[in-house]
Structures are given as structure tokens and as C-alpha cells.
């Protein structure tokens, strides 16, 4: 696992463990348990994870995610900590870094910011740059069909279109 993705993975696992399975998240109606199940299914069940992007597979994804959510919470946390199975594309360092750094950062913030006493997290500049770089690539891909333009603006004023 890469440095950033691994660090964020472990931080997310620790935070989910501390928050507990019924903790609120910023992911709609999802609890911490639901979010943990999502992360596990995304990495471990390629047959279902396609539903994240392909609407026709969304029902299957939700069914498999619910099955994982029914597992003991501690098991879900351990599956997150240990990372993807060897045969998962996410086990490749480059895929892990490209796909999981932002995913785990965002979901960590989904749990952190749902707590009433949360405070902003200080990010080191190298990690900030890594996040922005990945977000710029993701925005081009995910925003390509948007009828409106998409502009990312960093706190220092730099932009990416």
C-alpha cells in the first residue's frame, strides 16, 4: 500500500472503530457501519462494486453492501485495516494510491465532520498537493458530461478547470 492511501486507510479504520457502528456520517442516511461496509465491498467485491458507477448494477451493490453491513463491526474494521485481497486491483500500489487516497480521506472526513465536536484537520502541504492533483484528474473524468463548467479553486486561489 502507498504512503498516503495506507495512512488514510488506517486513520479511517481507527476513526470508525472509535466512533462505533451507529455513529452518524455525512453520507446521507449511512451510519459508520454502512460506510465501513461500503469501503469493504468496494475493494473486495468487484462483482458488486461496479454498481457505484453503473446504475444497472446499483441494486446488486446495495444488496451485497447490506450483507457486509450485517457482519460484526469489528470484522469490517479489520477488513479495512488489512486492505484489499491480493487479487484485487486495489492491491496494486499505483491503483491503491490513485483510487484510495481521496476515497479514504473523504470518508474519514465524512465520519469526523459528523461528530458535533469536530475541528478542522491540519494537512501537510505534500499531502494537500497529492489530494489536489488527484481531485483535478477525477474532476475531469467525473465532470466530463456536466452541462456546467467545473472549476476547482484551492484556498491559495489557484484553479483547475
Describe the structure.
The protein has seven helices and two strands. By secondary structure, it is an all-alpha fold. The protein has two domains: 119 residues, no CATH class; 37 residues, no CATH class. The chain has a two-stranded antiparallel ribbon. Helix 2 packs across helix 4 and helix 2 packs across helix 5.
Q: What's this, in brief?
A:
The chain has seven helices and two strands, in the order αααααααββ.
Mean pLDDT: 88
Strand arrangement, major sheet: 1-2
SSE pattern? HHHHHHHEE
Number of strands: 2
Compute the separation of the termini in Å. Answer: 30 Å
Query: From the structure provided, what is the oligomeric state, counting identical versus distinct chains?
Result: single chain
Strand percent estimate: under 5%
The largest β sheet comes out as: 2 strands, antiparallel
Q: What's the total helix number? A: 7
Features:
161 residues, 2 domains, two-stranded antiparallel sheet, 58% helix, globular
Topology:
Layout: H1 3-19, H2 32-44, H3 46-49, H4 58-69, H5 73-82, H6 93-112, H7 125-142, E1 152-153, E2 159-160
Antiparallel strand pairs: 1-2
Helix pairs in contact: 1-5, 1-6, 2-4, 2-5
Amino acid at each position: 500500500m502507498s504512503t498516503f492511501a495506507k495512512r488514510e486507510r488506517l486513520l479511517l479504520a481507527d476513526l470508525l472503530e472509535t466512533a462505533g457502528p451507529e455513529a452518524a456520517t455525512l453520507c446521507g442516511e449511512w451510519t459508520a457501519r454502512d460506510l465501513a461496509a461500503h469501503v469493504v465491498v468496494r475493494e473486495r467485491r468487484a462483482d458488486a462494486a461496479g454498481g457505484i458507477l453503473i446504475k444497472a448494477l446499483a441494486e446488486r451493490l446495495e444488496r451485497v453492501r447490506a450483507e457486509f453491513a450485517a457482519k460484526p463491526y469489528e470484522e469490517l474494521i479489520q477488513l479495512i485495516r488489512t486492505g484489499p485481497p491480493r487479487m484485487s486491483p486495489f492491491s496494486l500500489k499505483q491503483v491503491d494510491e490513485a483510487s484510495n487516497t481521496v476515497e479514504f480521506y473523504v470518508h474519514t472526513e465524512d465520519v469526523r465532520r459528523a461528530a458535533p465536536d469536530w475541528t478542522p484537520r491540519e494537512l501537510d502541504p505534500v499531502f494537500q498537493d497529492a489530494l489536489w492533483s488527484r481531485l483535478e484528474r477525477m474532476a475531469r473524468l467525473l465532470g466530463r458530461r456536466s452541462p456546467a463548467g467545473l472549476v476547482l479553486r484551492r484556498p491559495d486561489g489557484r484553479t483547475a478547470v
